[in-house]
Specification:
190 residues
């Protein structure tokens, strides 16, 4: 599991090698990379405009298969076009309206997971409690957004699990809305 998470967290460009995607992003493109926990694969949701055509697709990638102690075999990714009967330009713009281009890296709001206000019965007063919570079970997402000169990149580890524990964190709520919208529009288990 460590190897999979480690390779996912390195950066999206390393995953692009496994997916066959270019590291040169199109003029309008959103990529959302989702790891697969303890399995040997992950998935990329992609919406983009190329040659005046809007498309959406998923790409399932796989870690290389170990043949021997020093030999690995690349497993080709599986690409599925999911843009049939969809107004993909509208979907792209809706994702923009859901602030995919402005969400920060997780480090920018990590402090929100560390402080909480509790009622202390002994002191009969509210107190600030500081504690670090680490949720290791769940999925990590890495997002790349490009629209003209605008570019944003961020990674969230286990956002849905953290949102359950910290429902007041706006960034997690915003990202959850993005995931729900994608799932609804494309009927994806993503």
């Amino acid at each position: 599991m460590f190897f999979i998470i480690y390779s996912f967290i390195l950066n999206a460009q390393d995953l692009d090698k496994l997916t066959g995607l270019s590291t040169n992003y199109l003029e309008k493109e959103i990529r959302i990379y989702k790891d697969r926990g303890i399995t040997n694969s992950g998935i990329v949701f992609r919406v983009y405009k190329k040659n005046n055509q809007w498309k959406a697709e998923t790409i399932q990638w796989f870690l290389p298969k170990k043949i021997s102690s020093d030999d690995f075999q690349m497993i080709p990714p599986i690409t599925k076009n999911i843009s049939a009967d969809k107004n993909v330009e509208l979907i792209f713009m809706t994702l923009e309206a859901l602030n995919i281009g402005q969400l920060p890296m997780e480090d920018a709001f990590e402090y929100k997971k560390e402080k909480s206000i509790i009622w202390d019965e002994d002191e009969e007063n509210f107190m600030m409690r500081t504690s670090k919570t680490a949720i290791l079970d769940g999925n990590a997402y890495s997002v790349i957004y490009k629209a003209g000169q605008y570019y944003n990149e961020f990674t969230y580890n286990n956002p849905e699990s953290y949102l359950h524990q910290f429902p007041e964190i706006d960034e997690l709520k915003s990202f959850q809305k993005i995931l729900e919208y994608i799932r609804e529009q494309f009927n994806l288990n993503f």
